[in-house]
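Slack export, channel: ligand-projects

TW: morning all. Re-posting the request from yesterday since it got buried. We need the structure predicted with the small molecule present, not the apo form. The ligand is flavin mononucleotide; the SMILES is in the block with the sequence. No rush, but it would help planning for next week.
GE: picking it up
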Amino acid sequence: MFVACIGTFDGVHAGHRKIIDEAVNLSKNLKANSIAISMIYPWQYYFPNFPGLIYPVSQRIELILDTGIEDVITVNMAEIKDIEPEDYISSLLSQGLKGLVVGEDFTFGKNARGDVKMLSRMAADYGFELKTIPKQTYQSKRISSSWIREAIARGDIKLAGKLLQRPYHIFGQVYRDQGLGGKLGFPTANISRGEDKLVHPRSGVYIVRSIIDNETVFGLLNVGFRPTINPSEEVKYEVYYLDFEKELYSKVIEMDLLEYLRPELKFNTLDDLIKAIKRDERIARAWIAKHLSNQGEKEIENF
Ligand SMILES: Cc1cc2nc3c(=O)[nH]c(=O)nc-3n(C[C@H](O)[C@H](O)[C@H](O)COP(=O)(O)O)c2cc1C
Ligand SMILES: Nc1ncnc2c1ncn2[C@@H]1O[C@H](COP(=O)(O)OP(=O)(O)OP(=O)(O)O)[C@@H](O)[C@H]1O
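GE: finished. pasting the full token output, ligand included:
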């Protein structure tokens, strides 16, 4: 016996959390297991103008499980897009579905014909519990993964963090590059974000925070194409951690994006680039000092 909630859940934003929490509550009332059914990719993923996922699928699953729901099942959109919605629900019923939680505007199945009206009818006919959740909003606008992707792409990481209920973070493995940064006076770790098609934050410089070997470290992340030296065809992620000297090659690091400082620029000389980075560092140090709480704990206010 199980209670399920259905969606893509990319980002696991405030609206998703509400749906998942309600599924967990309902499962307790019905003494059943709780399951999130997560579409691997949203419908838009298959179109060329899709900006990319907020988080890799593996991380999405971790975030969903962190909410306290017992299991996550991933479903390929191709598997259900041509299925009659009644058939999909019947197959869940035959597997022990006792309750279902969805957003009020949720649609699924062939021609998106499955909706709350249809689900209510089926719930009455087949005796399962249906809970629909009113849309969760921020500043009167429906919270959605699409809105968050768009905010990240234009560098509004504050808004993204609000909608996600935690700072937007990126994560990836450190790989060896030319090591030019060290020679310029600021060693950088180059990050590879993996295979999933992910949204790129607006190119430029960000203040970031990571936890490395149980220690909080702050850094400057450059996202972009490095137009000044060694230009790249694809977006690169390079982080310069402040007051940090440990070896990072091949480690997987996660960083919270806290503040957007400036766009990436093409400088005429290397010297100008170095000056700009030194200035970024001064601004970042002042920002960090201002935002650290007074109790000596390395916590950023407002997050
Ligand atoms: C904080 C920071 C800011 C940066 N800003 C720029 C920039 O505005 N324009 C640019 O062309 N490169 C910028 N870079 C990228 C540097 O050009 C890059 O780190 C340098 O080329 C070394 O790269 P490599 O060691 O990976 O070869 C920035 C790097 C950092 C860490
Ligand atoms: N703001 C919200 N308030 C209430 N329910 C929501 C909200 N956003 C999504 N849901 C519900 O959460 C489940 C998962 O949503 P899903 O990830 O498919 O949509 P989304 O966040 O709107 O993404 P997209 O912007 O890509 O359409 C669905 O049942 C959906 O109806």
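GE: first-pass observations. The domain at 169-291 is CATH 2.40.30.30 (Elongation Factor Tu (Ef-tu); domain 3). The CA atoms of residues 79 and 109 lie 9 Å apart.
TW: perfect, thank you
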